[in-house]
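Researcher: Please predict.
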Amino acid sequence: MSAQAALTEKLFAISDLIRLPKQYGTLLLLCPTLWSLFIATEGRPSLKLLGIFILGTFLMRSAGCAINDIADRNFDRFVERTKARPLASGRLMLKEAIVTFLALSFLAFILVLFLNPLTIILSVIGISLASIYPFIKRVSHLPQVFLGIAFGWGGVMAWSAVNNAIGLPAILIFFANIFWSTAYDTIYALMDKEDDIKIGVKSTAILFGRHVYTALYLFYALVIITLAVVGFIAKMGSIYFAVLLLSFIIFEYLPFILKRSQTRETAFRVFVVNAGIGLLILAGIFVDYTVRL
């Protein structure tokens, strides 16, 4: 194999490591961050803040995928869905994956240095949460809850970047994201449930057992209730609450779809729909503020 071909193969492996062709995860991480940013700025975030948080979200989600595969490299080869991942399949060496993770984390931290000191401190916590998350599934059945903590931290940082403080709406968005992430990542975990049981990996999909659909209904309801409280505190208008109502209807329909067709393909499609609903809520926030200008 020529040097150019070998380099191309490595670049494709790194692309797979950070899930470059699959950006729904970035959207799920970005949505609560932008919900918070747009509410904190009353619908008018600066281009600087938008750029920092959108690019930073992409970098941190990519770094999160890298550290996840590093942590799971000895498990992934035994799971049907993940056995072709770069580390599990041998297309990428461990040290190459570690360098990728460190480089992405460093670039994300450089971006944060353009923000205020409080947000810089919060970013260190955020990087720590992202690094710890992949190991939670070994000791707890609640890695999906921890994912919500890690993914929701961007909303706290966005609020602090605007106000140099952590406000109640940001805290509520943080908790709304914990409920949301627990729901959609439980759905994601359903795809690997049988394999996870065999290899000893824990998840809420296993913990909830036959009550998983009831749990999903509950968590999705808590998302909307919490965001409704955010709306009342932030004095949002009717468009925002109408979008929340529509989102609630869609959310509550998802477990019904999942229960009716209990396949990996259906679980994945239902999981991806969550990114669309997150963007719908963001659009509701944007339009609600826009019509008032």
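Model: Residues 24-288 form a domain with the Tetracycline Repressor; domain 2 fold (CATH 1.10.357.140).
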